[in-house]
Design brief:
Elements (H helix, E strand, L loop, with lengths): L6 H16 L3 H32 L7 H37 L17 H24 L3 H20 L2 H26 L6 H33 L5 H16 L2 H11 L12 H6 L4 H67 L1
Helix pairs in contact: 2-3, 2-4, 3-6, 4-5, 5-8, 6-7, 7-8
Length: 356
């Protein structure tokens, strides 16, 4: 098979790919993104099947398979992507930023919005990040997690907006910081999945780390380093401001604080909560379709068991009532018989007295 592929054909494919990546046509860009999304979904499916077999052999609960695989998949992507972006920024962007800082009159007041843009490389980075987030949104939608799905779609739009306006440094630095945050949270989620239920202290430690990391990124770093400069910068396009604010609001909506409030308001029993009435476990575990199915089966089992116990109790009460009624009738008959015998004796004694 390999002998039929010539070097000229390979070069032709490479030139065609380079042409597609360098093209500014909208339809061409959509086709590239669509092909990449299909490729990512295919790789995820193979990765899922392979890791599912390994988890089955290691006797991990089937309820935790999907979430464990998703955590490992996300961690691998964010680790590779963040490592690449750090190297990319240090080799291709940092030198231009340092050169711009040394000028008397820099082009931008805030170098976060500086455009040292190589469109071909930036397009590849944008396709990879936005395509992965679209795939993650599809998986979240399949798991019926609408809020997370919308948030990831909005982030994909934000990355595409950065590409359209040429804010390469803005996009790369943002994805580096978010990649580090997601690596940490996915690692916490993976550890919590394989922690025993009775180790409540470990779950509380995981929740504390999750809250601290979320507060630092979304209440300290992003508002002061990104949102406020984006809103107040005069030279920034309005599309970038709208995209960032919309995505930031969606992340606030998916915050662990609102998740904890939802737990207190709506998780009234262990069947409604993925953490079985434990706030720390509820915050660390996602409500996957497998977990919902398991909770439905567990609820049905307990309802059938309760119905059976009620039936046995009613049957016992009925038998006891019947036995007591039978005993009462027996005692009543004995007392009636005693009265009759007493009357017979009294009548017999009266007759004997009259005869004497």
């Amino acid at each position: 098979m390999w002998s039929k592929i010539s070097l000229l054909e390979c070069l032709e494919y490479v030139q065609q790919l380079k042409f597609r990546l360098g093209s500014k046509d909208f339809n061409e860009n959509v086709n590239v993104l669509f092909i990449y999304i299909l490729f990512i979904l295919s790789v995820y499916f193979l990765f899922y099947q392979l890791l599912k077999k390994l988890l089955t052999k290691s006797k991990v609960s089937k309820v935790m398979h999907r979430q464990s695989i998703n955590c490992i998949w996300n961690f691998i992507f964010y680790f590779c992507c963040t490592t690449f972006l750090i190297l990319y920024h240090s080799y291709f962007i940092k030198d231009e930023l340092d050169f711009e800082k040394g000028k008397w009159y820099p082009k931008r007041r805030n170098l976060l919005f500086y455009k040292p843009c190589d469109m071909v490389k930036f397009k590849i980075i944008t396709c990879i990040i936005s395509g992965f987030n679209v795939c993650a949104a599809i998986l979240d939608l399949h798991a019926r997690d609408l809020s997370e799905s919308i948030s990831k779609i909005l982030f994909s739009f934000l990355v595409v907006i950065c590409y359209i306006y040429g804010y390469e440094n803005y996009s790369v630095v943002l994805n580096i910081n978010l990649g580090l945050f997601h690596m940490f949270t996915e690692l916490l989620a993976l550890l919590s999945l394989h922690t025993e239920k009775d180790q409540i202290l470990m779950y509380r430690v995981f929740v504390v780390f999750k809250f601290i990391s979320w507060i630092y990124v979304f209440l300290n770093f992003l508002p002061f380093q990104y949102m406020i400069p984006t809103i107040h910068a005069r030279e920034v396009e309005i599309g970038l401001t709208i995209g960032f604010v919309a995505w930031y609001i969606s992340r606030i909506w998916c915050s662990p604080f609102l998740h904890a409030l939802q737990h207190q308001l709506y998780h009234l029993n262990s069947f409604d909560c993925q953490g079985e009435n434990s706030l720390s476990r509820c915050l660390m575990l996602k409500d996957t379709p497998e977990l919902k199915h398991y909770k439905s089966l567990k609820r049905a089992y307990f309802e059938i068991k309760l119905h059976h116990e009620r039936y046995q109790l009613n049957k016992l009460n009925l038998s006891e009532h019947a036995a007591s009624a039978k005993a009462f009738q027996t005692i009543k008959a004995v007392m009636t018989l005693k009265r009759k015998l007493k009357r017979i004796r009294e009548n017999k004694n009266d007759q004997q007295e009259k005869q004497q």
